[in-house]
Write a structure and sequence with these properties.
The complex is a heterodimer.
Chain A: H1 21-32, H2 37-59, E1 65-67, H3 68-88, H4 92-101, H5 104-131, H6 139-148, H7 150-155, H8 182-200, H9 205-215, H10 226-240, H11 251-262, H12 266-284, H13 289-297, H14 299-311, E2 331-333, H15 341-353, H16 357-367, H17 371-380, H18 385-392, H19 397-406, H20 411-417, H21 420-435, H22 438-450, E3 451-453
Parallel strand pairs in A: 2-3
Helix pairs in contact in A: 2-3, 3-5, 5-8, 8-10, 9-10, 10-12, 12-14, 15-16, 18-21, 19-22
Chain B: H1 11-23, H2 25-28, H3 37-54, E1 56-58, H4 64-71, H5 82-99, H6 106-118, H7 125-142, H8 151-164
The chains are: A mainly alpha, B mainly alpha.
Chain lengths: 454, 165
Amino acid sequence: MNNKIKKQTVIDADKLSGEFYFQSLLQEAAIKGVLSPKEAERIQLECLKLLADSTERFTRGQSSSVRVEIAQGIMASNLFTIGIYLKSLPNLDTALFQVENEPLEKLYEQGLAVLKRKINVAHYFFNQVCKSKLKTANHAYNITIDQGFKPFFESYEINFHAHEIPSDIDYQLIHPVTDLAGVEFVIKYLESLYYENLFCLYFDADIIHEVMSGYDKAYQNLLENICAQIFQNALGCQLLNVPWHLLNFSPADLNSLDKKLRSHNQLELQTQLKRATEELITDLALTNRSLKKYLLASLPKITTTVYQGLVTNSLNKVFVPRFNPKTRPLVCYNMGLKMDDKAYRELVTEFLSCRFFEDKLAIIKEQIKSLADMEDLLIATELESAEAAKIFALLEDIELAVLAKRHPLHPTIDAIDFSASEVRMQHNLDAYLRTLPQARLAKILDMTTTIEVV
Amino acid sequence: MSFELMLFDNFLIEKQAVSEVLLCNKITADYALVLSEEQALELVETRSDSLKNVGRVEFGGGIIEKVILTFANSPYISQHYYAEIINDLVEIFYYFKNETLDLMSDDDLIGTMKKYFDGVCQGSLDQLKFRELERVARNVRLGIDPDYNDLYDSEKLMEDEDEDE
């Protein structure tokens, strides 16, 4: 039996806001009749008195008035500080008792003490995060840890801006931190990031890099969560009963995963994933209870991702095969030697002077011996698309792949980086490739990824 | 229950403010300057309106008493225009609190107002507001001496700043 006996209170704790705790507590108490209108008025007046005192401290007694937005900020900070103290109490009844029987100024002072302790907690988690930091190329991850929290630890101000979060946080967590503000937000974020780091530390940094490169070659610049992808891959390995530390999937693996999971509805899928998570936790010898909870809590999200992957036949985007960006291309293509400059000039002159296209084709067949010369000729002669298409038709798939790799069509940058003749050639090549059957085009485009031109 | 900021301009608070203003009469009477209860109430209302217009809130006694006591010995204030001038000065004060970005304390701003009102402005509120205090506010925003009065240099400084931006 895991059920705990919970004391019955009139106010529903779930209805209280984490960010505006004190305000929501008063609101609920007023609605439920726990707080009489007279008490509510007393609290309002005390809030104004507290604001007046804080404002005087803020202006150091040099100004009797402040701009409304400054007063609003100070008021929000005061209420946040009181809320922090009330949250630290064992239950709602105690919190309400304090609100009813203690002056707000005292609650505020207590809140300040709690805030100071919480800043120490934030420091602790930040140190833990720094110690467990992953070796990754992801820019958002690195900059968030290296520089994102500097403003917070340098300039977090508990007297007048306790509810603010002066930090530059770019990296996205599996569980985004919501409904919290100030130091509470930072603690929660750092704690979650620490658990994610702890999980990722079970895997080799190079393997993590390869998994993320498999997800996207430019993952360095993406705001993607690393832990979520590693966890998904680990679950996939667990479901396949292959070593989890490899985090890799062959096409056959993905097929068998597809067969294994396709028949399940979302609920069954979650059960399967939960079982796999528990097995993974055992295999990893995970002892940190908070980390276990953190991983299990992410299952609904992962279930949806896997389910969508199955529905859209894109399981390879969920369980990502590893990709090493440093792997040498499978095919090295030599463009061949260029002909002598004089001979080339004569060839181009002759080519351009031809009246019939058949004569031009004959010249190409007879005199062009390398793809390098062919490329030069295609650029220099500025052919019409119909003529160019006939010449492209003479080329093998691999030759087209080489040209496509060397001359990708980027309309936005072409005008700057390429000459008009090159842009024309790119357009002709693009137009020709579009006329090819889908299967052949896919084959050519696939070749462009594995080919290296020398 | 609303926790939005509000000015407590209810009857009791206004009454207390009016009585505080009227207390100043004991001192200003030496300069033959006295406010009636009606004029004091008008002053308190002016303060509330000015605060609302410039988007500020005020806690505590307010600025009216300070303005009254500082300007009481001005040679350019007579009983005939006394209430009207204090009303305008209160308005001007709150306006320039914003214009100086709160960088001047209450006492400094009132002192500056008094200095120019009695000095070059010779009791002209228009000159005080549109010429001298505008310049002071600009100087404060530029981070130079508030009393600095070389228009050419100020403009050059502003141009340099614009170019930097």
